[in-house]
Amino acid sequence: MKKFHHPIQDMAVRRQKINIKSGKGANLSWWQLSLIGISSVIGAGFFLGSGLSIHNAGASVLISYLIAGISALIVFAALAEMTVNDPQSGSFRTYAKKAYGESYAFVFGWIYWFAGLMIVSSEITALSTFTRFWLPNVPLWLFFAGYACIGIGVVLLGVQDFGTIESYLAILKLSALFAFILFALLVLVGGKSALFHSLSVHSPFQAGMFPNGFTGFWASMIFVLLSFGGIEIVGLTAEKLRDEREVTKAGYTLVIALVIVYLLSILSILLLAPWKAISSSESPFVTALSIFRIPAVGGIFNFVILTAAFSTMIGALYSMTTVLAALAADHDAPKLFDKRSKKDIPVFGLLLTLVLLIFVDLLSYILPKSVYEYLATASGTMLLLNWLNIILADLKNRRTYAEEHWTMPFQPYSGLIGIMIITLSIIGSVFHRQQRISLIFTLVIVFLIMVMYWIKKKFQQRTYQE
């Protein structure tokens, strides 16, 4: 009879090896990891980009968020199953290599890194833009450089301090969203006013569930899925948990909390904001609250968006440097990027990120603004490609796990459903011009990564022959 090993016991042994190598132990609780995930996921993209989703899909955007939540749950379940049964410091990139080989893992590892770079760039740009709300005369590039240095400084503090800061920022964002939901509930309860009657007549629900047809709903899916982008940080940070068995608790809490908060927030916007007033040029939260002429509402939500962008930025910084260190440890990047500080942070990976961010800052002034926006949007498409990679890797790797330790339910059907939703969402992006061009950018970046792999193999062959 084939002997299976207990995954939790094996995980403890492997974790010990990982910690011996890094010199650091685990020090995060499961709820801290959940808050880190929430803080990394809920960014300026949700507070600003949800307006575009509502504009495209109308009231059917609620269906979009429900489907996206199911997809995120499937992706995390796949990642959790691999993490519990085979804990690895490289997370999904290492699992991809075990499943489909070196070249596949090389491509997807670098895809995630490039996506992280563009996410960080776009979030810093959002931070800089919204800070000028209070300081309009300060140059944008100065804010960009300042936030880049502050973000890298936070990550250099180490995972414990980084986790504490992310936890506080997550609580702040959740508090703001729940306050908005509560306000909408109070308006609904006292809905006999003439203003509420006017809102009811002009609400998105009055325009029908699909005001722009099914194609509008379809085009909204990719933007909604991007609202869940960043849940991968749970897998990348899992080795820092005090109790490795709680990774599934942390992840499921994260995804379920996101689904509930997103659905209630979007429903509140649909109840408060007139249909024609919602656009992609302004946060729908600000649009909804401005109707009631609440004093300083612009400044309040501007601050909330700032905290959202900052927390997402530092979460992406941590994730991309962790993946770069894994690439370096596996000889898919210069070994220098796996060198760590006393607090177990890959400092040279952060230094490379800072240099590239400065380059992106300069490039954004040379290239048209629209091109920069397309590059930022392309990061979302690459994140969805990584979601596909996680599900595909789990479908292959789970064959090596003991059946009694499979943690992803309804397999392989749930995995196939997740693949179908993500693939159709990417295809649906052709209905939106910006996303069409972003797809082209994504293909170009994937091609460049494949060229990088070809150069690497040629160099290795030449070195071996010599």
TrEMBL record:
<dbReference type="GO" id="GO:0006865">
    <property type="term" value="P:amino acid transport"/>
</dbReference>
<keyword id="KW-1133">Transmembrane helix</keyword>
<dbReference type="InterPro" id="IPR004840">
    <property type="entry name" value="Amino_acid_permease_CS"/>
</dbReference>
<feature type="transmembrane region" description="Helical">
    <location>
        <begin position="103"/>
        <end position="120"/>
    </location>
</feature>
<feature type="transmembrane region" description="Helical">
    <location>
        <begin position="62"/>
        <end position="82"/>
    </location>
</feature>
<feature type="transmembrane region" description="Helical">
    <location>
        <begin position="250"/>
        <end position="274"/>
    </location>
</feature>
<keyword id="KW-0029">Amino-acid transport</keyword>
<protein>
    <submittedName>
        <fullName>Amino acid permease</fullName>
    </submittedName>
</protein>
<feature type="transmembrane region" description="Helical">
    <location>
        <begin position="294"/>
        <end position="327"/>
    </location>
</feature>
<feature type="transmembrane region" description="Helical">
    <location>
        <begin position="30"/>
        <end position="50"/>
    </location>
</feature>
<feature type="transmembrane region" description="Helical">
    <location>
        <begin position="216"/>
        <end position="238"/>
    </location>
</feature>
<feature type="transmembrane region" description="Helical">
    <location>
        <begin position="347"/>
        <end position="368"/>
    </location>
</feature>
<feature type="domain" description="Amino acid permease/ SLC12A">
    <location>
        <begin position="33"/>
        <end position="460"/>
    </location>
</feature>
<dbReference type="InterPro" id="IPR004841">
    <property type="entry name" value="AA-permease/SLC12A_dom"/>
</dbReference>
<dbReference type="GO" id="GO:0055085">
    <property type="term" value="P:transmembrane transport"/>
</dbReference>
<feature type="transmembrane region" description="Helical">
    <location>
        <begin position="140"/>
        <end position="159"/>
    </location>
</feature>
<feature type="transmembrane region" description="Helical">
    <location>
        <begin position="413"/>
        <end position="431"/>
    </location>
</feature>
<keyword id="KW-0472">Membrane</keyword>
<feature type="transmembrane region" description="Helical">
    <location>
        <begin position="374"/>
        <end position="392"/>
    </location>
</feature>
<dbReference type="Pfam" id="PF00324">
    <property type="entry name" value="AA_permease"/>
</dbReference>
<dbReference type="GO" id="GO:0016020">
    <property type="term" value="C:membrane"/>
</dbReference>
<keyword id="KW-0812">Transmembrane</keyword>
<feature type="transmembrane region" description="Helical">
    <location>
        <begin position="437"/>
        <end position="455"/>
    </location>
</feature>
<feature type="transmembrane region" description="Helical">
    <location>
        <begin position="171"/>
        <end position="196"/>
    </location>
</feature>
<keyword id="KW-0813">Transport</keyword>
